[in-house]
Amino acid sequence: MSYKALIVEKEGPVAVITLNRPEVGNSFDMTLGLEFDHEIRHVSEDQNVRTVIITGAGKYFSTGTDLSMWTAPERHASEEGDAQNLLPSEDDETFGKGTAVASAIRIRNMPKPVIAAVNGTAAGLGFSVALACDIIIASDRARFSMAFVRRGVAPDTGASFNLPRVVGPQRACELTFTGDTIDAAEAERIGLASRVVPHDKLMTAARELAERIAKNPPLAVGLAKSQLYQGMMETDMLKHMKLEVETMGKLMKTADFIEAASAFMEKREPVFKGE
Fold first, then answer.
1. Which of these, 21, 136, 199, 216, is most buried using a 10 Å CB contact count?
2. Is residue 99 classed as helix, strand or coil in its secondary structure?
3. Does the pLDDT at position 124 exceed 80?
């Protein structure tokens, strides 16, 4: 599908979604919000896609919300109307559907790993989107800022939920209350970024990781993702271990489990079909 504010590329089992409003720092207006949520829904349902990469065009990942939606709303009215056909159906009850809010929920709930390849500044809502992803790989030019308070608002799109779980409560409080910007090296040091790579190697590194993950059985990867996030919320270890046993039982009945065992015994590379 052709979008106004997104570029989507699919190569094998990997989908790359590029936020494409570089002239305004890839900031989110209504059109980008609708298109992004539409494409996240699409890749979540696409059985040919096993991993997803989200990045930004030009110098920025995303500088957040396009404030001109409030200061010059007439500029956005016609384009917003054109994009309304991308809204989810009425039976889709996802909170905030048609916006980046819903996208963050869908990213977390989809049974596919999502990698944020942060190529430049990720601020405000842009930072929230990166935090919703499962893994952040940062260019050495990346910058991160919880800029919300500097705009007179509090964090949204799940940032206040995700950030403390990634960097711990004290660091999350400092980043949130100050709105300070940190560089890629600091992001890696505090565990916000999984790794930092040279800027010109960013997409290569992201693709290599995505392809490595995609070689694994998708049912197992999807349930492992679900378990990890449930485990962060669970306070009863025994209850969570029972969930692990239940999940293991389901996966051991799949064709991919048999293929993994056969490939191991036959000393060959397995081929997983998601069955």
1. 136
2. coil
3. yes
Query: Residue 204 and residue 210: Cα distance in Å, rounded?
Result: 10
Instruction: Please give the helix or strand (H or E) that residue 55 lies within, else none.
Output: strand 51-56
Structure tokens at 109: 């709930």
Same domain flag for 127 and 114: yes
For residue 25, CA distances in Å to 96, 126, 256 come to 23, 10, 43
Please say whether the beta carbons of 57 and 19 come within 8 A: yes
Q: Using alpha carbons, list the distances in angstroms from residue 126 to 96, 155, 199, 270.
A: 16, 11, 18, 38
DSSP string, 142-168: -EEE-GGGGGT----TTHHHHHHHHH-
Do residues 131 and 162 make contact, with C-beta atoms less than 8 angstroms apart?
A: yes
- Judgement on whether residues 208 and 234 belong to the same structural domain of the protein: no
pTM for the model? 0.93
Residue with tokens 């059109």: 31
From first CA to last CA, the distance across the chain in angstroms is 28
Residue 91 lies in a domain: yes
pLDDT tens, position by position, 93-111 = 899 999 999 999 999 999 9
Q: What is the mean pLDDT of residues 232-237?
A: 94
Kindly report the average pLDDT of the chain as a whole number: 93
- Together in a domain, 51 and 25: yes
Same domain, 123 and 258: no
Three-state DSSP at 195 gives strand
The tens digit of pLDDT for each residue in 36-81 reads: 999 999 999 999 999 999 999 999 999 999 887 766 555 555 555 5
Q: Residue 178 sits in a domain of what CATH number?
A: 3.90.226.10
